[in-house]
Amino acid sequence: MPTEVKVPALGESITEGTLAEWLKQPGEAVAQDEAIASLETDKVSVEVPSPVAGVMGEHKVAAGDTVAVGAVIASIEEGGATVSAPAVAAAEPEPESSEGPGANPQLREDAAPLELKASDAVVSDDAISTMSPAVRRAVLEHHLDPTKIKGTGRDGRLTKDDVLNAAKAQTSAPAKAGAQTEAKASPAPSPTTPAPRADWVPASAGTQGRQEERVKMSRLRQTIAKRLKEAQNEAALLTTFNDVDMSAVIDARGRYKDLFEKKHGIRLGFMGFFVKAVALAAKDVPSVNASIEGDEIVYHNYLDVSVAVSAPKGLVVPVVRDADRLSFAEIEKTIADYGKRAKEGTLTMEEMQGGTFTISNGGVFGSLLSTPIVNPPQSAVLGMHRIEERPVAKDGEVVIRPMMYLALSYDHRLIDGKDAVTFLVRVKEAIEDPTRLLIDL
Fold first, then answer.
1. Is 151 exposed, middle or buried (0-12, 13-18, 19+ CB in 10 A)?
2. I need a surface site. Which of 2, 278, 335, 347 has the fewest CB within 10 A?
């Protein structure tokens, strides 16, 4: 008798999610507790494990459908069976091209199912069976060998973008070679004839016109958009800036990074210094670590820092609990673990709830300056940026120093300008003289 697969509990107050992707297709063998589908909630992606070992049965819902907690989404046939690749004809249709007449007929919904011809790249059943329908269709459509394409998806799986990029690279190479041959054979343009643009490609080179692709926003992206817009509508947002000389922190890291890693098994990064500096500054300016609830101000005697980290489907903010009481090593280990699991999509709802202050490091992506948006119900967020050498005045002389711009965005309903500036100056002082972190100044 088939075993039903139900949507697991998704966390406190979460009653539904979106089925983002089927990881197993009907007819494929599955092991007990092996992930068969990926669900998206408002905050995290959750994998649905198989309750038993067997063969993947019928999909009760399609990718993109909204499913409630406890709903049956599939069935597992227990026992052994031959694993067979699903037919290509069952692949999901692509969105209809908006190009009109002359568009690639293989992109239209009414196009005939694609078949792998003898002249096409040879693709094994095993390789085909591990692809999602959209990826499988793209591989066959462009006659590519998936074993020669590097996958950027989870566990190295191919994504549709991987296939499209490979196809683009394959078609651009002959076009460039042809353009170079034509350039050698053609006479130099006369003074009265404008030279062709460097990026111009003749229509005969195989171009298919302009194309568009519509992709439904993920639940995570929809939630991010909703919450950030709510923050702009609700809070009186303002940003104050300062810059900080990173020389002392860089020197400390250079001297102790090897000993630190040897003792604690983790690299000494910048974030530990900034979390400690924020904890120190929040003692002098507690409103930065407070929040508004109705007509009351809630002051927290603890510091739970939300650290913004990049995930494949958007920015997520796991929380470092009691950051003011943690050591440098504990902070660095927690953040490193969050960063790793954010990329894997294995963060839990509980790990991203309840922060009282946020630190966002846009510098890792090269940002020089930004105005971060407060994450409700918090009242402030500190933005870090890239370190670059700049000329600054020190003791009457112009010297070169590794400088970083800091930005503090805050809710002006709760935090006055004086308090915001004072807080940021305290952070600056602690970073420029890390000894303050040790003696609580």
1. middle
2. 2
Strand boundaries in 246-365, DSSP class E:
290-293, 296-299, 305-311, 314-316, 319-320, 357-361
Q: Rounded to 5, what percent of the chain is helix, strand, coil?
A: 35, 25, 40
Integer Cα distance of 320 and 334 in angstroms: 7
Q: Dihedral sign, CA of 415, 421, 422, 426? A: positive
Q: How far apart are CA 281 and CA 277, in angstroms?
A: 6
Over residues 99-136, the pLDDT tens digits come to 333 333 333 333 333 333 333 444 444 455 456 656 77
Which positions are annotated as active-site residues?
412, 416
- CB within 8 Å of 331: residues ≥ 6 apart: 271, 272, 275, 276, 320, 323
Residue type, 125: D
CA dist., res. 272 & res. 289, Å (int): 18
The span from the first CA to the last CA of the chain, in angstroms, equals 68
Mean pLDDT of all residues in the chain? Answer: 78
Backbone angles phi, psi at 202, to 5 degrees: -60, 150
- With a threshold of 0.70, does the pTM exceed it? no
Q: How far is CA 112 from CA 88, 105, 108, in A?
A: 11, 9, 9
Task: Please check whether the domain covering 219-439 is classified as CATH 3.40.50.10400.
Answer: no
Report the alpha-carbon distance of residue 426 to residue 280 in Å, rounded.
Answer: 8
Where do the structural domains in the chain lie, given as residue ranges? 3-84, 90-187, 219-439
Q: What is the DSSP letter of 270?
A: H
In sequence order, what DSSP letters do the residues of 224-256 get, joined into one string? HHHHHHHHHHHS-EEEEEEEEE-HHHHHHHHHH
Taking only Cα atoms into account, the Rg of the chain, rounded to an integer number of angstroms, comes to: 27
CA–CA gap between residue 129 and residue 25 (Å, rounded)? 8
Task: Give yes or no for a contact between 78 and 54, defined as CB atoms under 8 angstroms apart.
Answer: yes
- Level-2 CATH architecture, domain 3-84: Beta Barrel (2.40)
Q: Please check whether residue 308 is in contact with residue 347, taking contact to mean a CB–CB distance below 8 angstroms.
A: no
Q: Token pair for residue 421?
A: 């500036």
Q: Please report which helix (H) or strand (E) contains residue 6, including its range.
A: strand 3-6
User: What is the Cα–Cα distance from 363 to 368, expressed in whole angstroms?
Assistant: 7
| DSSP symbol at 309 | E
Q: pLDDT per residue over 30-52, tens digit each?
A: 888 888 888 877 666 778 888 88
